[in-house]
Amino acid sequence: MVFFALSILVLASSAFLALASGGLAARARIIGAGGALLGSALGLVSVLKVLFMTGAEAYAGWPAFSVPLGRLALSIDPLAAFFLLPVYLLTAFAAVYGAEYLGAGGGRRTGAAWCCFNLLTASMALVFASANAVLFMLAWEAMAVSSFLLVVYDHHKEQVRRAARIYLVAGGAGALALLLLFSLLGASSGTLDFAAFARPEGGAAAAAFLAALLGFGLKAGVVPLHVWLPEAHPAAPSHVSAVMSGVMIKTGVYGLVRTLGWLAPWDGWWGPALLLAGLASGLVGVIFALAQHDLKRLLAYSSVENIGIILMGLGLGVTASASGSTAVAGLCFGGALLHALNHSLFKGLLFMGAGAVMHATGTGELEALGGLAKRMPRASLYFLAGAAAISGLPPFNGFISEFLIFLGSFGALRGPEAPALWSVAVLLALAAIGGLAGACFARAYGSVFLGEPRSSRCHSAHDCGAPMLAGLALPAAACLFIGLFPSAAAGPAAAAVSSAFGAEPGAAFLSAAELPLAYVSAGALALVLLLALAAALRVFLLRGKVPAAGPTWDCGYAAPTARMQYGASSFAQPLTDFFRPLLRTAGRHAPPDGYFPRGSEFHTEAGAVFYNNFYAPAALMLRRAAYRFSWLQHGRLQFYILYIIGALLALLLWKL
Amino acid sequence: METLETATRFAAALLLAPLLPGIVNRVKALFAGRKGRPTLQLYYDLAKLARKVPVYSRTTTWVFKAGPAAGLAAAVCALGVLPFGGRPGPLAFEGDFLFIIGLLAFSRFMTVLAALDTGSAFEGMGASREAQFAVFSEPAFFLSLAALSRVTGEFSLAGMFLSLTPDSWRAAAPVLALVTAALFIVMLAENCRVPADDPDTHLELTMIHEVMALDHGGPELAYILYGASLKLWLFAALIAAAVLPRHSGSWLYDGAFFLAAMGGIAAAVGIAESAMARLRMLKVPYMLMGGLIFAALALLFQTGR
Amino acid sequence: MNTFAELTIVLIILLNMAMSVSGSLASCIRLAAAQGVAAGLLPLMAAGGAHGRAVAFAAFIIALKGLVFPWLMLRARELTGARKEIDPLIGYPASITLCLAAFAASAWLGSRLPLPQSGVAYIIPASLATIFTGFLLITTRVKAITQVVGYLVVENGVYIFGLALFVEQPLMVELAILLDVFVAVFVMGIAIFHISREFDHIDTDALSQLSDWRRGEEG
Question: Structure pTM?
Answer without folding.
Answer: 0.91
